[in-house]
Write a structure and sequence with these properties.
alpha+beta; Multidrug-efflux Transporter 1 Regulator Bmrr, Chain A; single chain; 156 residues
């Protein structure tokens, strides 16, 4: 599949993330665990679930985290820890983005598109590839209707 790649500005936002290593077949359980931890802590999600991949997607022993943007506390903070999850402020940054429509197991070309655009522009990757699950199983739609933003932060 051929993808258009755009430069996007990703706003600063508080996130809570849950780090995992292992087969990607466990990512759904990690997402459910993160949602449960947020509910137990009384935190409210403020956007779609995402996953950040620190090793190649599809690897049997992948390093990744799942993350959710959250509504900050009244003082603007986010907890350092939420059970086994970690709170953080993700700073404003720019990323190369390809929008994938369809099942999650068919995103290899979207990953390749953002990496190839980064190299073609002479940029350097400045963080993990992030998949933002705008429309997913949690929305009750079939895989053919999923919408995932594949983002690669970069530095010039």
């Amino acid at each position: 599949m051929i993808y258009d790649v755009d430069v996007v500005s990703v706003p600063a936002r508080p996130m809570v993330s849950l780090r995992r290593a292992g087969p990607l077949s466990g990512i759904g359980e990690a997402m459910r665990s993160l949602r449960a931890l947020l509910a137990e802590a009384g935190l409210e999600a403020d956007g779609p679930m995402c996953a950040r991949f620190y090793s190649a997607c599809g690897a049997e022993d992948a390093a990744y985290d799942v993350a959710l943007p959250v509504v900050p506390r009244p003082d603007g903070s986010v907890p350092d820890s939420v059970g086994e999850a970690c709170g953080e402020w993700v700073p404003l940054h720019h990323a190369l983005e390809a929008v994938h429509r369809g099942p999650h197991d068919q995103m290899e070309d979207a990953w390749a598109a953002v990496r190839e655009a980064c190299a073609a522009l002479g940029y350097t990757p400045a963080g993990p590839v992030t998949e933002v699950y705008e429309v997913s199983r949690a929305d009750g739609v079939p895989p053919e209707e999923y919408v995932t933003r594949v983002r690669l932060p970069y530095a010039r």
